[in-house]
Amino acid sequence: MRKTIEYLGKNVCCKKELTIFAYNQFDMQAFNTDKKKSSLALLSSDGDMSSFRYGFQNIRFRTSPKLERYTSVKEWDNGYIVVMAKYKDIGEIEDYIDLVPILQNLYIDPHVFLKPIKSVEIRYVER
Fold this sequence. Notes:
Helix content is 14%, strand content 50%.
């Protein structure tokens, strides 16, 4: 069972839901028990929603509808992510994601949640 949490915009709507997902090969590769992987979080996007996954938690938050995909992570600083992102009509630009206010609005202690994360990678599931 994986906990999925959705955050829909700043001060707009905040909901928590528990969703059951089947474990697939992608999950097992991303979150195996080896020491290196246990400190890895994954970032992806789908439409106007972005997903930050760590362990069995998936924090989803709304992004621009013009976002096509994240291309690389330039920096991870305990909740603050600098990424390269490709947008429709704009091209690839540097973008910034601050997870701390998102986690706080979901009543998740950012210091506890973010402490074990040492790196973030972009990972998309092939469809």
